[in-house]
User: Fold Aminomethyltransferase from Pelagibacter ubique.
Amino acid sequence: MNMQKVYILEDRGILYINGADANEFLQNMISNDINKVNEGNSCFASLLTPQGKFLFAFIVVKHKSGYFIDCEKSQTDALFKQLSIYKLRSKVEIMNLSNEFVIAAFSREKFLKFEGAKDQPGNTIKYREDSILLDPRNKELGARLIINLEKLYLSLKKLELKDSPIAEYYKLSHELGIAQKKMNKLQNKLFGIECNFEELNGIDFQKGCYVGQENTARIKLKNKLSKRLLAIQLISGKLTEGASIYANDIEIGKVLIDDDYPFALVKYLDDNFKEDSELKSENAILTIKKPNWIK
Assistant:
């Protein structure tokens, strides 16, 4: 990621959760430990079904007396509704601030130039009053600035950052094997742990109960993780959502996201699956590679 470039992620939304019970409210629901989140640290987390299936993924950042939820903008309304269902009598206020705040992403190298910045995923500092954090999922995704839209361009000018096409950012994310786009296509189709959320620092196995915790812990403890969400590299043809993927005429996966940055749920431990070998799907030839951050 070029040190002078910035990517204005207009496709990201911001929810704000505030109130006397905000901490407890989030702790009882999300896959990570909300107590990790403070002025100096942010976290990646997910909201799962009671069965442990994936629903939403987001970054949690401390803001004043509450928390920013940085999520895919197309999912903010659905996430808002889901959180509201769990609200019940909790003293919590949930607001959609997507029209007021924006996310800007830039390089890890630029982040480390700031005073007090640490080369640790989730490390969070203040630029004036705004939070800048090193992506808690993977440091190679760079840093994120959460800022009021009205202040954005003046701040980017002062930081000597040049607006660049966001396709470059999502291409990098796809090359790293980290899904961020069209995540609604994954809902209820795989377990959260199969989305690699453990490796992306999004699951805390030491915290208490949360929605979907039982099955997540069982898969981990019984070593039953046999499928993973992995990036597809299309060689030729056209991908079809839901189509099976074959190696030597043996089904080893299924296309879940078939758009510009495609992903599949793959039986990565199957003897027929070989990294970088050509695989076949309904109308496509493709390869799949396990990222180096998955051991």
Notes: The helical segments are 22-27, 76-87, 108-111, 152-158, 166-176, 213-221. The chain has two domains: 5-166, 183-288.
